[in-house]
Amino acid sequence: MTVAKVSVPCDFGVENLYDEFHGNVTVEFKDSTSMKASSLILSWNSEVFTHLFKELRQGTVELTDFSKEVAVILLESLYSGDIVVERSHFREIYKISHAFKVEWLSEKCTAAFTEFCESSSQDFNDMVFLFNEAVYSDCTLKCGKLMEIIVSTFSKFEKMSEMFVAPYLSKHFTRIKPAALNQLLEICCGQFIPVLRAVKEHLQTDGIAKTVHTILSNKDVVKCMVGESQLYDEMYGMMLKQLNDKNMNAEDLELLMNLNRAVRNQGSTSNSVVRSNGILPGYATIMNLFHEEDEFRAAYDKNLDALRHHV
Predict the structure, then answer these.
(1) Are 106 and 96 within 8 A, CB to CB?
(2) What does the pLDDT read at residue 267?
(3) What's the rounded Cα separation, in Å, for the pair 231 and 257?
């Protein structure tokens, strides 16, 4: 006779979790307390638990990497087959569902996150919470589902670049990771002017930081930037003046070279505007020394002093 496999989530009766008669393994919590649980019920919900009990023959499970409150919520959900995902516990619940590969629980978290996004009041702090959760999931848990939801939902809101992206960028300018930054740019839906203005502000205080490199390596951003001659000239001039900084390196110069090439390719008048403003007389001729990629590195040391001389 073949016994039908239990399909989870399933209601095994949460009251049985608190009846030690049904418990044959020990679950240890962060506060050094413990409780009994059924290895069978835990294993039905998670292949990780199956591995621990069946293959490694462990009789104890340590949930000490999570708060006791969240660990108990996990156990209760495995017994009851249901959970109410609250914002206050969202990150830890989502994290523990991934750690123990409880697929249905991860799906519940994803559904809850979708509801959080769709019911968002477009309040800045609310959007920061949602975006940060998506960044954590993407960068730490290596799961991009939440970021996909963020991009899909936030892109529908009007003026996201001005209302959220630029302020968020300004607040986290030197700390934001490239992956998260690229997602922010996608949320802009081509409206990059507020972002470029935020970059301009930080050029004065932070120089050509990694964030600047990431943003200005985006072809759509550069296209938008070149199309705004005055903004382009101001930002390019500020970056050229960074040549007086001893921290200026070959990557920074290469960024300027690529921007200069973008101007030429799009037929912009920015070169003449920069020269007429006296930012760098004849800079275009000097920068053209670098317009061949394979010559750039070799020319770097030789021409750095000349570049500085013209700032």
Answers:
(1) no
(2) 59
(3) 17
Residue 167 makes CB contacts below 8 A (sequence gap 6+) with 124, 198
Q: List Cα–Cα distances, 304 to 243, 252, 281, 295, 308, in angstroms.
A: 8, 12, 16, 14, 6
- Tens digit of each residue's pLDDT (9 = 90 or more) over 135-183: 999 999 999 999 999 999 998 888 999 999 999 999 999 999 998 999 9
Q: Mind listing the pLDDT tens digit for each residue in 28-43? A: 999 999 999 999 999 9
Show the tokens assigned to 163. Answer: 């209302």
Structural tokens at position 136:
């954590």
The reported pTM is 0.81
Question: In sequence order, what are the beta bridge partners of 37?
Answer: 25
Asked if residue 283 lies in contact with residue 303, where contact means CB atoms within 8 angstroms, the answer is no
CA 59/CA 2 separation, integer angstroms: 28
Q: Which residue in 213, 217, 223, 168 sits closest to 192, CA to CA?
A: 223
Residue 272 neighbours by CB under 8 Å, 6+ apart: none
Residues whose CB falls within 8 Å of the CB of residue 53, separated by 6 or more in sequence, listed in order: 25, 39, 42, 43, 59
DSSP code, position 37: E
DSSP state of 172: T
Cα 183–Cα 188–Cα 193 angle in degrees, nearest 5: 125
Residue among 171, 227, 173 at smallest CA distance from 199:
173
Positive/negative CA dihedral, 205, 207, 211, 214: positive
